[in-house]
Write a structure and sequence with these properties.
The chain is an alpha+beta fold. It is built from ten helices and twelve strands.
């Protein structure tokens, strides 16, 4: 007889939006997006251990060497990974519980979809320890109800996103891209940034968002100057309105030789495209030395979506 899975570790990536077009607010309060999601090699791990007494619990720790503010992450039912476990438990009619330990490296409330990564990892991890046999498509449908970025965190890679972010279509982007994350002190609230955008747009007509064909060509060809020229984020002005210091961070990175820079998602992390891995390390060192941001982290993409990296039976 096959032994049942006692614990698994699942790794899920941070994301940036290489391009983020935001349409008008919809009747349901969300905004239609047209975006290029890109998964980074910066990731969180979620360890799931079966709890035969039927309890669901969450613990959050910083990964070794990481200074992520884990105190800012709730461990109660408001934690997205907790919600993911409960959603799958109900959906699959599971009686067993789970102890989730989130090992964080992705900055909290940074516009890098860290909470969505944790939810995606929890879905994959719980599916494995409970042996529910759900397919990826079912997990993505459950995930979309938890947060707009969860389906992408499951998928990974470089992907065109539409709807509120849950409709995904892979794009060809074979080149490894090197990035520097300028991590800010404290987070920004995503709903607040969207509200600020709506306020800034008030009265004006807002066109349906789209991703320029030139960006897709540049990604296919690994043409870094063209990718840099097409970096764009409709939430950037709103994030900078709420955090004017981000404009100085953008200037600083470009002054240090980055090919281009952009606010990541709803911010406040700023992300810079670098020419190569050495350049990313140099820019990160110089940004950190300048003291303009809390931390500067070199990374690269794309990376895989949520996946099991260790399993114990
Ligand atoms: O889906 P998620 O939980 O990430 O969204 C957080 C908030 O961000 C939403 O409640 C909404 O205010 C805003 N949002 C939006 N349009 C999207 C995604 C998020 O307005 N496409």
């Amino acid at each position: 007889m096959r032994a049942s899975t006692q614990s698994v570790t699942v790794r899920a990536p941070a994301k940036i939006n290489i391009r983020l077009g935001v349409g008008p607010q919809r009747p349901d309060g969300f905004h239609d997006l047209s975006t290029v999601f890109h998964a980074l090699r910066l990731s969180d791990d979620v360890i799931a251990e079966r709890d035969d007494k039927g309890r669901v619990s969450v613990d959050v720790v910083a990964a070794e060497g990481s200074d992520v503010d884990v105190a800012a992450v709730p461990t109660d039912e408001t934690n997205l990974a907790h919600q993911a476990a409960q959603a799958l438990r109900r959906y699959a009619g599971v009686e067993c519980g789970v102890r989730l330990t989130i090992v964080k490296r992705i900055p909290v409330a940074g516009g890098l979809a860290g909470g969505s990564a944790d939810a995606a990892a929890a879905l994959v991890a719980c599916d494995a320890v409970w042996e529910t046999g759900c397919g990826r498509a079912e997990l993505a449908t459950l995930g979309a109800r938890l947060g707009s970025d969860v389906p992408f965190s499951l998928h990974g890679g470089t992907v065109l996103g539409s709807g509120r972010g849950e409709h995904l279509c892979p794009v060809m982007a074979p080149a490894t891209l090197h990035w520097v994350l300028a991590v800010a002190d404290g987070g920004l609230s995503t709903p607040e940034v969207y509200r600020e955008l709506d306020r800034m747009r008030a009265g004006g007509a807002v066109a349906a968002p789209s991703v320029p064909a030139g960006l897709l060509t540049a990604l296919r060809q690994g043409d870094l100057p063209e990718i840099a020229a097409h970096l764009g984020n409709d939430l950037q002005a709103a994030a900078c309105g709420l955090r004017p210091g981000l404009l100085d961070v953008l200037d600083a990175g470009e002054g240090l030789g980055a090919l281009g820079g952009i606010v990541s998602g709803s911010g406040p992390t700023v992300v810079f495209l670098a020419a190569d891995a050495d350049s990313a390390h140099d820019i990160a060192d110089d940004l950190a030395a300048g003291g303009i941001c809390r931390a500067a982290v070199p990374t690269s993409g794309s990376a895989a979506g949520a996946r099991v990296v260790e399993s114990v039976s």
